[in-house]
Amino acid sequence: MTSNIGTVDRVLRLVLGVILLVAPFVSNLAIFASTTTVIISVILGIVMVATAAMRFCPLYRLLGIRTCPR
């Protein structure tokens, strides 16, 4: 697996992933009143954190995008 996520992209994914994981449980936003939106938020958060940790995004590979220096 070749790395295709750069440092800035990695940090943004990590921050957004943590926000998506934590927000449904600590905020009182109306959007998280539904169980479905909580599940979607948690799944997206896990995907964002996982791709940041692995420095690899399968969607980037399919689209031919690379944000890290060669």
Helices and strands, with pairings:
Layout: H1 7-26, H2 35-54, H3 58-63
Helix pairs in contact: 1-2
What is the gist of this entry?
This protein has 70 residues and is mainly alpha-helical. It is built from 3 helices and no strands. The chain has one domain.
Question: Explain this structure to me?
Answer:
- This protein is mainly alpha-helical and 70 residues long.
- The chain has one domain.
- It has 3 helices and no strands.
- Helix 1 packs antiparallel against helix 2.
- The longest helix is centred in the first third of the chain and has 20 residues.
- 13% of the residues are buried.
List low-pLDDT spans: none
Number of structural units classed as domains: 1
Average pLDDT taken over every residue? 95
Order of helices and strands: HHH
Task: Please report the number of helical segments.
Answer: 3
Largest sheet: none
Described by the principal axes of the CA atoms, the overall outline is elongated
